[in-house]
Amino acid sequence: MRRSHADYRSLKKSGTKIPRRFADLSAKIKLAFYPLGGLKDGRRCGKIDIYSVFCHHGKDCGAANRKTETGANAVRVLFVGDVVSEIGCDFLMRTMPQMKKKHNIDFCIVNGENSALGNGITPASCDIILSAGADAVTGGNHTFRRAEFYEILDRSFTPAIRPANVHRSAPGVGYTVLSRGGLRLGVINLLGASFMDMRVSDPFDCLDAVLDELKADGVTCSVVDFHAEATGEKRALGFYADGRISALIGTHTHVPTADAQILPKGTAYMTDVGMTGPIQSVLGVEAQCVIKKLRTGLPVRFTNPSGPCSMCCAVIEIDNKSGKAVSIESYEIK
């Protein structure tokens, strides 16, 4: 049964035990959806229900006390690369909370499209990511692999989004606005059009449309998760959006690139942030499975190896007044 935030407040007053991530929360994120998949003022249109959710920070991160060179409040965002299977979820739970605390993070974005055993995302794997401290869970070409996740995308209390440029009949929405302590952050999910296994609309045009919606809502800061195969397509969209978004972080290839930078007009950029999962693997999959598939061309059931893991991520600092990126740093936590 799905509950609203008011239901959880009532349960807490009555002494009923509630999920940890909804307890002792200090900030509310109001979400509402536009036809393209956006959120505004606690309302969403179309077939999706109205709801509100809470941040997963246990205490104030002190954003109002951090200033950039312009004197504006600084917004610190943690972006975590594709979480792979159960082993990746487990490592995320053990690693991400400390990373958030160490870097005084305001908002945390995690790509969860491969977090289920095998691939795709399920209600259970999404719940683990949120319990670890994510404020938004983004997707990609595997978002729709598991039909049981459709209801979560459409109706759940959970702030999970899917690529904005898939067909309008797809469940869920493609962007959200997070709010906390006077700070607001747009989170946009897009899918690449080159060398991908899904038919999508042009990500350039889609981004323009979403940014128009965010601008009308007064949102200055925004981060794009661009889930794409082609390096050139990612790079091109970064320059196309330079100065109009705070950051564009690439996902999907699971290999971190050495190009974290601020583009000329103030957008933080990284071609691919990498993955969260087993180190001794081929993109999170048992090496022998991939070798067999490449050598024979026959179908192979992929499995995920055990062993040491890493969490690949980036920390972005944004000037809340201008929406420009101040810094970006990439990390691989082992």
Percent helix, as a range, is 10-25%
Model regions low in confidence, pLDDT < 50 over at least 5 residues: 1-14, 16-61
- Radius of gyration, whole Å: 19 Å
* Overall pLDDT score: 82
Strand content: 15-25%
Number of helices: 7
Report the sheet with the most strands, covering strand number, pairing sense and barrel closure: 7 strands, mixed
The H-and-E topology, N to C, reads as: HEEEEHEHEHEEHEHEEEEHEE
Q: Label the structural class.
A: alpha/beta
- Shape annotation: globular
Number of strands: 15
Give the termini separation: 37 Å
What would your notes on this structure say?
- The protein is an alpha/beta fold and 334 residues long.
- Helices cover 23% and strands 24% of the residues.
- The protein contains 7 helices and 15 strands.
- Strand 5 (107-111), helix 3 (123-131) and strand 6 form a beta-alpha-beta unit.
- Helix 2 runs parallel beside helix 3.
- The relative contact order is 0.15.
Primary descriptors:
334 residues; six-stranded mixed sheet; seven-stranded mixed sheet; alpha/beta; disordered N terminus
The gist of it:
This protein is of the alpha/beta class and 334 residues long. 23% of the residues lie in helices and 24% in strands.
